[in-house]
UniProtKB/TrEMBL annotation:
GTP-binding as UniProt keyword: no
Originating species: Rhodococcus olei
The keyword Oxidoreductase is annotated on this UniProt entry: yes
Protein name: NAD(P)/FAD-dependent oxidoreductase
Cofactor(s) the protein requires to work: FAD
Keywords annotated in UniProt: FAD, Flavoprotein, Monooxygenase, NADP, Oxidoreductase
Domain of life: Bacteria
Region (Disordered): 233-256
Protein family (similarity comment): Belongs to the FAD-binding monooxygenase family.
Length: 534
C-alpha cells in the first residue's frame, strides 16, 4: 500500500517538546509519514508549560540547542549564557516554523489510551476528545518531567485564594503586587522562582520540607565576541559533548578529589563554584563515588550558604542534611540564598514545624498559622514514568504498561518494553535522560531509533520488540551502575521517592551519554541484538 492510500501513518509521535519536534523533522527526512500529537496549545513541551517567573535552563544555551542543522546553529543568537524560558520557547517556535513542522503537529490533543493491534501490527491511539489515530510505530517523547505532582496535603482544595503550579503557570502573568504569597517546594522550580516572587509580592513565605543545594548560575549576557568564538568552536564543542557524561563539553579536574591536597581541592572547588550551576557538581571525577570528595564539596557549599545568609538560624535551615551533594539534582539559582536576607521573606522549616493542613485562609502548621492570598506549588513531577502511566497503554495480549512497571520501570536501553512492540520511548527510564543534555541526547536517540526502523523496513519486517532477557539484563545493569555511586543515598525523584506509593527503582543510566551512545552503537552493529525484528 502506498503512503497516500494507507489509513495510517508510519510514525505517531506523542509530545512536541525538544525530542518530539526533532522526531518529526528526522522522520520526514527519513521519508516516513509522521504525525505528532501534543497536549499543549503550543509546541515546546516542558518549556511551554513551565513559564513560572525565573524559569531558565541550567544547561548553557549554546549546548542546550539542536545540533542537527549547521545553519540553524550558526544563525540563532542566544542572548544569555543560561536562556530564560521565553527565549527557549521562541527558539523552539522558530525551529518549528523554519522546518515547517507545524503542519505535522496536532495541538490540544492529549492522548488517553494507546492499543497495539496484533492483526495489523499498528498502534491505535485515542485522544481525550475521542479522536483516533493509527500508525506502525508509536514514538513517545512525552517528557521526563511533564506530569506535575499535586501533593496530598490535607485541605488542598479548601484554599480560597489563588493557586498556581509552577509546572502549569498561567499564560497571563498573575499580579502579585501587594499580596501575601506562599510557596511550597524548594527544588529547582521553587529555587528559581522565589527570588522573583519575593520582588513582586508584599510578603513571601517559603515552605521548605527538604533543603536542597543550589549553586549560583553566574548567568550573563553573551557578548559579540562570545558569539564569534562559539561559532568557531561549535563542531568541536558538539563532538566533545557527545562523548561526555552530561552532554556538554566541560571536563572535570584531571585528578580525583581524594588524590588532591586540601589546598588543591579547595582551589578546584572555588573554580567549580565560579564556573556556576550544576557544573560545580562535576568538579571532581569521583564526586559521586567517593564519600570523602563529596563531603568536601558539601562542606564547601555549606560555607557559601553561611556566608550569604545573614541570619544563622535561617542559614542552618537552608543547609541540606539528608543527602550527598548532587545526588538530588543541584539547583541553579540567581540570588536564591540572598532572598532570605530580605525583610519581606520568611522561611518555614517544615521538618521542625510540619504542615497540618491547608485551610480557606492559608496554611496551618503544627506551631503556627500563615494567612495567604496566593499559594504556589513548586512540588515537582511524577518523573520519568508519570506521563506514560497517565496513558492507558496496552500491548500484545492486552498487556498494560502500568502493570509492566508496577514494581518500577523496566526497559531495554530505555527505548522499549517487552509486549509493547513498535512502541519507543525517547528519554525513557533506563536511559541517561535528565542526567544529560536532553536536546543532544534526544537527537541521538531519535536518530538511532529511525535507523532501527529503516533496518526493519529493509527486511520487510513489521514488528520490533525488545526481548525479555535483554530487558532484564539492561534494567539490572542500570541498577548496578547506580549502586556504584552515592545516588542511592538520596530520597530523590530519580528513584521515584517523591511520589507516595511509587515503587523505588533508580530510573536513570548514570554512566553518561557517551558510554550509553557507545552501547547503542554496538547493539546496532550487532544486528540490533536484544530486539526481536519480525
Ligand atoms: O521539583 P522537585 P522541581 N509538602 O521534585 C516539595 C528539573 N528542573 O520542579 O524534597 C511539602 O525537585 C519537595 O520536598 P521534598 C530539574 O531536573 C530544571 O523543583 O519531597 N513539600 C521539593 O522541595 C529538577 O530536579 C530546571 O521533601 C513538598 C519540591 O516540592 C526537576 O525539574 C528548573 C510536598 C519539589 O522539588 C524537578 O524540579 C526546574 C509536600 N507534600 C526544574 N511535596 C532548570 O533547568 C513536594 N514537596 C534550572
Amino acid at each position: 500500500m502506498s503512503a497516500e492510500t494507507r489509513p495510517y501513518k508510519d510514525v505517531l509521535v506523542v509530545g512536541a517538546g525538544f525530542g518530539g519536534l526533532y522526531a518529526v523533522h528526522a522522520a520526514r527526512q527519513a521519508g516516513l509519514d509522521v504525525l505528532c500529537l501534543e497536549a499543549g496549545a503550543g509546541v515546546g513541551g516542558t518549556w511551554y508549560f513551565n513559564r513560572y517567573p525565573g524559569a531558565r535552563c541550567d544547561v548553557e544555551s549554546i549546548d542546550y540547542s539542536y545540533s542537527f542543522d549547521d545553519d540553524l546553529q550558526n544563525e540563532w543568537v542566544w542572548s544569555e549564557r543560561y536562556a530564560t524560558q521565553p527565549e527557549i520557547l521562541r527558539y523552539i517556535n522558530h525551529v518549528a516554523e523554519r522546518f515547517d513542522l507545524l503542519r505535522s503537529i496536532r495541538l490540544d490533543t492529549r492522548i488517553v489510551s494507546a492499543c497495539f493491534d496484533e492483526q495489523t501490527s499498528t498502534w491505535r491511539v485515542t485522544s481525550e476528545r475521542g479522536e483516533e489515530f493509527e500508525a506502525r510505530y508509536l514514538l513517545c517523547a512525552t517528557g521526563s518531567l511533564s506530569a506535575p505532582n499535586r501533593p496530598a496535603i490535607p485541605g488542598i482544595d479548601d484554599f480560597a485564594g489563588e493557586v498556581y503550579f509552577t509546572a502549569q503557570w498561567p499564560r497571563t502573568e498573575p499580579d502579585l503586587a501587594g499580596r501575601r504569597v506562599g510557596v511550597i517546594g524548594t527544588g529547582s522550580s521553587g529555587i528559581q522562582s522565589v527570588p522573583l516572587l519575593a520582588r513582586q509580592a508584599d510578603q513571601l513565605t517559603v515552605f521548605q520540607r527538604t533543603a536542597n543545594f543550589s549553586v549560583p548560575a553566574l548567568n550573563r549576557a553573551l557578548t559579540h565576541e562570545d558569539q564569534i568564538r562559539v561559532r568557531e568552536e561549535y563542531s568541536e564543542r558538539r563532538r566533545k559533548s557527545r562523548l561526555s557524561g552530561g552532554g556538554s563539553p566541560h571536563l572535570a579536574y584531571p585528578k580525583n578529589g581524594t588524590e588532591c591536597t586540601p589546598e588543591e581541592r579547595l582551589a578546584a572547588f572555588e573554580k567549580g563554584w565560579a564556573t556556576g550551576g550544576v557544573l560545580f557538581g562535576k568538579t571532581f571525577p569521583d564526586q559521586y563515588v567517593s564519600e570523602e570528595t563529596n563531603r568536601c564539596a558539601q562542606e564547601f557549599a555549606e560555607a557559601k550558604i553561611r556566608e550569604i545568609v545573614h541570619d544563622p538560624e535561617t542559614a542552618a535551615d537552608l543547609i541540606p542534611n539528608d543527602h550527598p551533594i548532587g545526588t538530588k539534582r543541584i539547583c541553579t539559582d540567581t540570588g536564591y540564598y540572598e532572598t532570605f536576607n530580605r525583610d519581606n521573606v520568611a522561611l518555614v522549616n517544615l521538618r521542625k514545624d510540619p504542615i497540618v493542613r491547608i485551610t480557606e485562609w492559608g496554611i496551618k502548621t503544627e506551631g503556627s498559622a500563615y494567612e495567604l492570598d496566593v499559594l504556589v506549588f513548586a512540588t515537582g513531577f511524577d518523573a520519568m514514568t508519570g506521563a506514560l502511566n497517565r496513558i492507558d497503554i496496552r500491548g500484545t495480549g492486552g498487556a498494560s504498561l502500568r502493570e509492566a512497571w508496577r514494581e518500577g520501570p523496566v526497559s531495554y536501553l530505555g527505548y522499549q518494553v517487552p509486549s509493547f512492540p513498535n512502541l519507543f520511548i525517547v528519554s525513557g527510564p533506563g536511559s541517561p535522560a535528565v542526567l544529560a543534555n536532553m536536546v543532544l541526547a534526544s537527537e541521538m536517540q531519535v536518530d538511532w531509533l529511525l535507523e532501527l526502523i529503516r533496518h526493519a523496513d529493509a527486511q520487510g519486517a513489521n514488528q520490533i520488540e525488545a526481548r525479555a532477557d535483554a530487558t532484564e539484563k539492561w534494567t539490572a545493569h542500570v541498577q548496578e551502575a547506580a549502586e556504584e555511586t552515592l545516588f542511592l543515598r538520596a530520597n530523590s525523584w530519580y528513584l521515584g521517592a517523591n511520589i507516595e506509593g511509587k515503587p523505588r527503582r533508580f530510573m536513570l543510566y548514570v554512566r553518561g551519554l557517551g558510554t550509553y551512545a557507545d552501547i547503542c552503537t554496538r547493539v546496532a552493529e550487532n544486528d540490533y541484538a536484544g530486539f526481536e525484528i519480525s
